[in-house]
Amino acid sequence: MSDSPLPPGSRIVIAGASGLIGSALARSLSADGHEVVRLVRREPRSRDEVRWDPQRQRVDAVGLLGCAAVVNLAGAPVAARPWTATYKRKIRDSRVLGTATLAEAVASLDEPPRVFVNGSAIGFYGDTGGRAVDESAPPGDGFLPSVCVEWEEATAPAQEAGVRTVLPRTGLVVSREGGAWAKLFPLFRAGVGGRLGDGRQYWSYIALHDEVAAIRHLIDTESVSGPVNLTAPDPLTNREITEAMGRVLRRPTRLATPAPLLRLALGDMAEDILGSQRVLPTRLLESGFTFAFPSIEGALRAALD
Hints:
By secondary structure, the protein is of the alpha/beta class. The chain is built from 11 helices and 17 strands. It has helices at 20-31, 85-108, 143-153, 156-160, 179-189, 208-220, 238-249, 259-266, 269-274, 282-286, 296-304, and strands at residues 11-15, 35-40, 49-53, 58-59, 69-72, 115-118, 120-121, 132-133, 164-170, 172-174, 194-196, 202-203, 205-207, 226-230, 236-237, 255-257, 278-279. The radius of gyration is 19 Å and the shape is globular.
């Protein structure tokens, strides 16, 4: 197999194109002359939209015809609200059912796409403490690891049909437009930001620019399949990231949120914030990818530019 970029004008289908990563990816692909098709849950309003209903596992397969790649980034936000039993079900179903729907649709095509890129997350590994892990590590224990395992397994129809399937396990995306940092930046700018818990937990982050570039790299690199960690090469502790936020924003960071308060306010979701994940992008680096913003200060400044 050769590793070559998709030619301009290639048709690329994106599920989750309205989200933080999906919208940035769509902009990047469109700027390079690709035809981006967005999967939407409502009635399509333009030629670049295709209807799907992941809850009922339906998609207009005709809209996938002629696509070079299908990218699935759809899923209910993990940190949008406390993890009630109902919201946990939504987190799981929005990922597993949507993935199964697209994997089966891709497998049914007479001319399948060149690649199926199906989002996953470093939540796969659970709490790793100070131990560094890469793609060779097994899944951890708990809610998020179990969701990630089912999420990735739902791609089986595409893999069994011979479609190259890539599973980007994304870390914490540094952006002021969404995700964790959209909530952190205003707090730190106001001078009330600080470490969470004891601050010793590792946060594996990635700049939004590098996240998009990495997904495009995975689309183009035909020698890569399976899980690939999308995290910067040097994970840092929450305390170290807090200090970097203070330097970049020139604000004090002496305040701290005690772990018991986080657990009281967030319930089960607090364990995801207080848990430690020291995740390395081994396969991404081995495939030849180069980070534009490998350091946290570079990622923060890129987000603020």
